Amino acid sequence: MMYPDVQRAQSELALAGQMNPGPWTEHSRNVALAARRIAEACGGLDADRAFVCGLLHDIGRRAGVAAMRHIIDGYDYAAAQGWDAVARVCLTHSFPLQDIETDIGKKDITPAQYAFICRYLAGVEYDDYDRLIILCDALADANGFCILEKRFVDTARRYGVFPFTVDRWNRTYAFKEDFERRIGRSIYTLLPHIEACIYT
Ligand SMILES: [Fe+2]
Question: 36, 46, 97, 150: most buried, per Cβ within 10 A?
Answer without folding.
Answer: 36
